[in-house]
Amino acid sequence: MNLDSARSPGRLADGEWHRLHPATPLLKGGIALIAILGVIVVNLRDVLINIVIGGGPGDEYDPFVWIIEHDYAGLIVLGIVVGLLLFIAGFYVSWRMHTFRITDEQVEVRSGILFRTNRRGRLDRIQGINIVRPFLARLVGAARLEISVAGQDANVQLAYLGSSAADELRREILLLASGTVPEGLGGAGVSSASATARLGELLGPELPPDAAPPESVVQMHLGRLLGSLVLSGFTVFLLAVIAAFVTVTVTTREYLFLLGFVPAIIGMGSYYVSKFTKSLRYSIAATPDGIRVGFGLLSTSNETLPPGRIHAVEVSQPLFWRPTGWWEIKINRASHSSAKGAAGQANTTILPVGNLADVRKVLELVLPGVISADEIALLERGLTSKGGDDGFTNSPARARVIRWFSVRRNGFVVLPDAVVLRRGAVWRTLVVVPAARMQSVALHQGPLLRRLRLAGIRLHTVAGPVMPYLGAIDAELAVRAFGDISQTAVASAGSDTSHRWRTA
Amino acid sequence: MRIELPAGEWKRVSPKYVMVDVVGNLIAAVIVVAAASVPAFITHNIFWWALPASLAVIFIIVLALTPRRVRAMGYQLRADDLLFRKGLMFQRFVAVPYGRMQLVDINRGPLDRAVGLSELKFVTAAASSGVTIPGLPEADAEELRDQLVALAESRRAGL
After folding, report:
1. B59, B78: one domain
2. Which residues of A touch B8 (CB under 8 A)?
3. A446 at the B interface (CB within 8 A)?
């Protein structure tokens, strides 16, 4: 068994056991150890200088001075050295014991010294592969590869790998997961030569991102990003809080009261900074293995979502973004990253801010094969239209009682492979649920809706920030839509092959 | 106007479930009303009695409507999905494609066991699907579970 460490880009997905990057122990906690060592050395230096120069011990209390004066020096130094050696040995052994392998079917990780852990993930269940490069790891050229499968805390983490090895490995895992038959195994009815050619052709476009990054379809402008932060709902909330505080202070003349405000300001500042740095180098691009979303300035995160892993898409516009025509896109996905992303983000916002053209491009990317070009145009009209006769089945006029402003915009469309729900005239929202991903559909009616001959529809998807529901639509139309949607869901799920996306 | 689906025959839950539901609600009612009476006993203020009294009225309405509510529950095994309905005032219909099934639970509480009933829970990847069919005779529940598992297997879909 050949256990080469994953520093150099070789073929890692060969079914053999491999080790992680040698700098792993350092990146995972060794930094703290070095810091402790540094503190000790710096303190010792003062003492040594004092001894050499012959000056007396300083007035201030110093544990090292105390140790030397009490003749425990030898013992303590020995203890520290032994402790450090044990730590280093522990880190080394844990690195030796932490191995992974990728076979054609699954990815498997073994770790732990006393308590052994063995985690396997099936490749055809992969929901996304994320390459995270924390700032320190970037300095030494390492990256963390996170393979997420559906479920809470169901990630297989390979931390850390060499930067280029991580990219290479992601490409190989995606290739295996896509259902392409690797060279050597030979597919049924496919000659070896043509299989090789096909493999080469498939390998071609997906180069390591550092060598030839896939062109991002959306450019993030600095001004727009700043503007979107300033005009966010959070800012409004912040201004309201500040106004309240100032009013209280001025009326009570208790100026010390403002001091209590300082931690809050720091917290809010860090919120803005993290949101800003997270979105600054945003990119989204199409690859043969799904979309690739990149984020982050110092610590970067770069995730590939294979096709058919997006369970719901929401395009929304906060009120204050209306004049500038900006939109935000969020998605629901089955995996929940347990480890925080680059800046602790939940990787569900795939377009932090963009104009209508950006929205169109991102929708085309995230819903390939689900939405046709005509349908995209329909959605785009639906986003901005004032409602009425615009292709959507909207609420009847009698629903004005419970949908004061949005009665004309509150509607839905059932497309061949997706269901689109539109809500809100003040806070505009449009939700697209691919029918092949829908888990179930519900139709409901309470006493109020019954009096108005209305009903509500709710589509059930995996948990996430997108809530696909629609209230106050005509009861008869809702019943018909309920039937249509449940049939569409069954038909789309039956014809869906995205879990092995390259074997169409 | 009540919602009616243009669908076929509904299979209803066992009438014995009325008893289970009534007893369960009675126990809950006694506990909740007793807890709500505590402030009245402590303060000797007559107005505090409004709280347990109003709760008692709500529970009486709930109990009185139990037979109708149980009769309103029903399910259908359609060609490709399970259709479930419940509710009188708040009607809810759910259609779950068989291929979406992640697992089926059969639960029996002490009251259920006393009258030989089971509760069948159909779990999908979406927490909000929440299809729970109560009041099935034990044999029916197990048969239905096996049937659902077989159907799910034949129409297997990804997530």
Report:
1. no
2. none
3. yes
Are residue B86 and residue B59 in the same domain, yes or no? no
CA distance B120 to chain A (A): 17
In the prediction, which pLDDT does A62 show? Answer: 63
What the block records as the tokens of B56 is: 């008692």
Residue A470 has a pLDDT of 94
Which is more confident, A77 or A311? A311
pLDDT exceeds cutoff 90 at A457:
yes
Give a yes or no: residue B3 inside a domain.
no
Is it the case that residue A57 has pLDDT exceeding 80? no
Cα gap B56→A122, rounded to integer Å: 54
Helix axes A262-280, A222-230, angle to 10 degrees: 150
Percent of chain B with pLDDT over 90: 64
Same domain, B83 and B144: yes
Range of the domain at B124: 74-154
Burial A408-429 (b: 16+ CB within 10 A, else e): bbbbbbbbebbbbbbbbeeebb
The residue out of B67, B88, B110 marking a domain boundary is B67
- B119 with B137, same domain? yes
Is B51 a member of any domain? yes
Q: What is the pLDDT of residues A328-382, one digit of tens each?
A: 999 998 876 544 443 344 578 888 899 999 999 999 888 888 888 889 999 999 9
- Establish whether the linkage from the previous residue to A72 is cis, with ω within 30° of 0: no
B93 & B146 share domain: yes
- Structural domain includes residue B110: yes
Q: Do A460 and B124 touch (CB under 8 A)?
A: yes
Q: In whole angstroms, give the CA distance from residue A205 to residue A382.
A: 35
Domain count, chain B: 2
Amino acid identity of residue A372, one-letter, is S
Residues B63 and B78 in one domain: no
Grade residue A198 by pLDDT with cuts at 50, 70 and 90.
very low
C-alpha distance from residue A415 to each of A379, B18, B34, B49 (Å): 11, 42, 54, 56
Q: Does residue B116 sit in the same domain as residue B49?
A: no
Among the ranges A6-10, A115-119, B143-147, which has the highest mean pLDDT value?
B143-147
Q: Would you call A460 and B128 a contact, using CB atoms and an 8 Å cutoff? A: yes
- Residue B113 maps to which CATH number? 2.30.29.30
Q: Is A448 on the interface with B (CB under 8 A)?
A: no
**Cβ–Cβ contact A465 with B under 8 A:** no
For residue A497, how many C-alpha atoms fall within 13 Å in the half-sphere facing its CB? 8
CA distance between the termini of chain B: 36
Specify whether B89 is located in the same domain as B144. Answer: yes
Q: Do B97 and A489 touch (CB under 8 A)?
A: yes
First to last CA, chain A: 36
Sort out which chain B residues have CB atoms less than 8 A from A475's CB and list them: 1, 3
Q: How far is CA A153 from the centre of its chain?
A: 13
Question: Does residue B92 fall inside a structural domain?
Answer: yes
Note the pLDDT of residue A393: 92
Given B67, B93, B128, the domain boundary residue is B67
- Choose, out of B2, B3, B129, the residue to mutate when testing the contact with A (most A CBs < 10 Å): B3
In this predicted structure, what is the pLDDT of residue A159?
81
Residue A63: per-residue pLDDT: 63
Binning pLDDT at 50, 70 and 90, where does residue A204 land?
Answer: very low
CB contact under 8 Å between A444 and B95, yes or no, is no
From CA A302, how far away is CA A294, in angstroms rounded? Answer: 4
Are A442 and B159 inside 8 Å of each other by CB? no
